[in-house]
Amino acid sequence: MRAILTAALLATGLGLATIPAEAKTGGCVRDGAVGAVAGHFVGHGHAVAGAAAGCAVGVHRRHAAERRQQQDQQPQPSQETPAH
């Protein structure tokens, strides 16, 4: 049974490795790694929970930065009064 499970996990991992991935700055990977390390030091078995929480925080921070960038790119309305 263990051999079948190992083979299935290996096949899944190899299949996922062939899919192209898009990496954006400040997302799940970096903050997830930080969360995993923090969870590891908190106690036994908390590394996965820390990684999940760190990933969620990273995605939220990236989306907030993207929204700010979009707002900065939009033209600002002029404050001048129209001439009559």
From TrEMBL:
The keyword Signal applies. The lineage of its organism: Bacteria, Pseudomonadati, Pseudomonadota, Alphaproteobacteria, Acetobacterales. Residues 1-23 form the signal peptide. This is Glycine zipper 2TM domain-containing protein. Keywords: Signal. Residues 71-84 have a biased composition (Low complexity). Residues 59-84 are annotated as: Disordered.
